[in-house]
Amino acid sequence: MVGRVEGKVAFITGAARGQGRSHAVRLAQEGADIIAIDACKPVSGSDQIAPSTPEDLAETAELVKGLGRRIVTAEVDVRDFEALKAAVDSGVEQLGRLDIIVANAGIGNGGATLDQTSEQDWTVMIDINLSGVWKTVKAAVPHLLSGGNGGSIILTSSVGGLKAYPNTGHYIAAKHGVVGLMRTFAVELGQHSIRVNSVHPTNVNTPMFMNEGTMKMFRPDLENPGVEDFRPVAQFMHVLPVGWVEPEDISNAVLFLASDEARYITGLPMTVDAGSTLK
Ligand SMILES: NC(=O)c1ccc[n+]([C@@H]2O[C@H](COP(=O)([O-])OP(=O)(O)OC[C@H]3O[C@@H](n4cnc5c(N)ncnc54)[C@H](O)[C@@H]3O)[C@@H](O)[C@H]2O)c1
Fold first, then answer.
1. Using a 6 Å cutoff on CB, does residue 201 contact ligand 1?
2. Overall pTM > 0.85
3. 52-59: which pairs have CB atoms within 8 A and are 24 or more residues apart?
4. pLDDT tens figures, 195-214
């Protein structure tokens, strides 16, 4: 059976673990080869969760190869345009083409109100979660243009790109900014049959969400809250009876947007949010 993105090549940032790894695997399952990059090291002065590692990225590569697809990996920080460009240029040289860009890399840091957010936390957040997305597309889009086959660009935003929550305003601002990037790239690139959409996940079961800090934020009344303590509180955010979704749920949306099934969909902020934005 022919895969839904058979013979295409996808460039994915933040692919060492979490959603980025899941996107690499899901697209590979449907016939794509992958260019996968990740910083694989601490990226902000105030990291609240363990950073991904070179071993994590190597595991993503093994998973993709196990599906019979090719993968090229590189340790690159999305703040470094020249390194991004070198990685995607080298990947395209090895894999022959580029069709799909998934700008997924991102961080969550801080936990302060906007007026109390440090300049350091603000700058790192905007540099990675907003400017890093712009640099990712800027570095890779020449290959979509020169390929002449159109293409699909998917930017990872968040429910926090469509509505506000307190105590993470720098993240909210960056993720709203991603929608502006998505819409502008969509109107600029549409003439080349390049579609640009964003995905807006609610809580996803990855290290960014499933950690001690999040559990304490949801259950400040408990000293050592565990998964079962914060599940019902997280569920309050949603219409559907779940506290969070799985990385594969976001990957299925990415796959659809990447595939020709979405050939006339562009400029869409697609939620995968269990109804969070309805509340
Ligand atoms: N987990 C959630 O609840 C949730 C919800 C909505 C949106 N998101 C967004 O989804 C995306 C993926 O997050 P995740 O849930 O998989 O988290 P994660 O922490 O498991 O994975 C993020 C990956 O991005 C990489 N990364 C971070 N900064 C980087 C940089 N400067 N350069 C290169 N790589 C970098 C990390 O090393 C890590 O491997 C992020 O943009 C995040 O903001 C996450």
1. yes
2. yes
3. 52/16, 52/17, 52/18, 53/16, 56/16, 56/17, 56/21, 57/15, 57/16, 59/16, 59/21
4. 999 999 999 999 999 998 88
